[in-house]
Design brief:
The chain is an alpha/beta fold. The chain has 2 domains: 33 residues, no CATH class; 95 residues, no CATH class. Helix content is 37%, strand content 17%. The protein is built from 5 helices and 7 strands. The strands form 2 sheets. Strands 3-2-1-6-7 form a 5-stranded mixed β-sheet. A hairpin with a 3-residue loop joins strand 1 and strand 2. Helix 4 runs parallel beside helix 5. The longest helix is centred in the C-terminal third of the chain and has 21 residues. The radius of gyration is 32 Å and the shape is elongated. The termini are far apart.
Length: 168
């Protein structure tokens, strides 16, 4: 006598096993990542103002550029957040600090950074731009600012930018 399958087994069909296709999912994530990277804006704040000064306001439309930071506050001059000279010696034209309108300690520090940057240019091919961003206090006198700018030019940084606040 032949085996007769039951009605339940006769009508039961095997369900196919569900699998994920990783190739198409990775393609989708790649497209999404490229879209998000293109939409990301990098026009944010590139320069962080020093805590030792108040920057002047301006109606400048040009975005800030990155360069060596020179901070000129009411009390001191800093290069890359390292104290270089006290402002009282600069304003009083102390002969050991200022000579012919050039601030000697600042010049030495700038020459050190420019020599390091030029060495990187020869060793690694990183172009030396000679850019410096001067963050000057809003109460800084014109004569003091000219001393700093003249020293930057002599110290190997002729491309100078002044950092200011742009009111929104």
């Amino acid at each position: 006598m032949a085996f007769i399958p039951s009605r339940i087994k006769k009508h039961k069909t095997a369900m196919p096993e569900a699998t994920l296709n990783l190739t198409s999912m990775l393609d989708t994530f790649t497209v999404l990542l490229i879209f998000l990277l293109q939409m990301y804006s990098t026009d944010g704040q590139l320069i962080s103002p020093s805590q030792y000064l108040t920057l002047p306001n301006s109606s400048v439309e040009q975005p800030p550029e990155v360069g060596l930071d020179v901070v000129v506050s009411r009390n001191m001059i800093l290069v890359n957040n390292e104290k270089v000279v006290i402002m009282d010696d600069v304003t009083s034209n102390n002969a050991t600090v200022v000579e012919n309108g050039i601030i000697k300690p600042l010049k030495e520090r700038l020459l050190f950074y420019s020599s390091q940057a030029k060495k990187m240019e020869t060793d690694y091919g990183v172009k030396f731009s000679g850019k410096v961003v001067i963050q000057g206090d809003k109460d800084l006198t014109y004569y003091e600012l000219v001393k700093v700018m003249r020293t930057c030019g002599v110290g190997g940084y002729p491309n100078m930018r002044l950092a200011v606040y742009r009111p929104e």
